[in-house]
């Protein structure tokens, strides 16, 4: 089976999807080749490889560059990963793909015939480390107003050890910032030495006229749990479905209280982490890629 992956480098998480799918294809024994959507000879590479499936991550830039997707002569599939924040734009071109997968159930009806495909983690990268958990609480991600509000609340209580990201304005958050970005392996290392990883979701909706509320998790939750940390997260419906034991908050006061209690109750923290980690099975990139292949009629043995 031959699959050609079209990669997209994300602003906040970089090449994590590229690497995750590459590792997954090796695990599944696929003939897999991949290149970025902006590779100059991308169409030539695809034609020479003669894939059974072209699997496109994110999709917008690829769809803008190549209008006639049928011209590739192979089935095309896209994994939309910015739902519902950019749904109006994505819905304008997603129908040109033979198969559409969306990260959030909330917009399935905006992409007729689409399939729900949530985000996941890469066990090749995200796994418990061998170093002691010397950090109390950390966060890795881009700055937005909601994130800074929660991080500042923790920082002013002396509970925040590090952040990675840019444009923080609160002095207490700036004081623990390790830099704008770190490589994927360093993300796993930082999660591996943290007792708690804070999760606060994306804030800005660029193309969402109806104001469809986001329901899905982000990769951070899966990745931090896989690295052995506890996650304390802003509430979303999907969390209760996948990780019902995971602690969630809806206010700064609740966030600080949950973090402080979890740090002061190590036995409870260990039990919660073990329960959540036990639910990670079935949520790797290989699992997601198997779903894609099964959906398009190219199923492989696990």
Task: Say what the CATH topology of the largest domain is.
Answer: Rossmann fold
**From the 3D coordinates, which CATH architecture of the largest domain would you assign?**
3-Layer(aba) Sandwich
Please state the CA-atom Rg, rounded to the nearest Å. 20 Å
Query: What is the string of SSEs from the N terminus onward?
Result: EHEHEHEHEEEHEHHEHEHEHHH
Number of helices: 12
Strand order of the largest sheet: 2-1-3-4-5-6
Low-pLDDT residue intervals, each spanning 5 or more residues: none
Top CATH class of the largest domain: Alpha Beta
Question: Can you offer a commentary on this structure?
Answer:
With about 300 residues, this protein is α/β, with parallel strands linked by helices. The protein has 2 domains: about 1-120 and about 285-295, 3-Layer(aba) Sandwich (Rossmann fold); about 135-275, 3-Layer(aba) Sandwich (Rossmann fold). About 35% of the residues lie in helices and about 15% in strands. It has helices at about 15-30, 40-50, 60-65, 85-90, 145-155, 170-175, 185-190, 220-225, 235-240, 250-265, 265-275, 285-295; strands at about 1-5, 30-35, 55, 75-80, 100, 115, 135-140, 160-165, 195-200, 230-235, 245-250. A 6-stranded parallel beta sheet has the order 2-1-3-4-5-6, with helices on both faces. The protein has a 5-stranded parallel beta sheet with strand order 8-7-9-10-11, with helices on both faces. Helix 5 (about 145-155) packs across helix 10. The longest helix is centred in the N-terminal third of the chain and has 13 residues, at about 15-30.
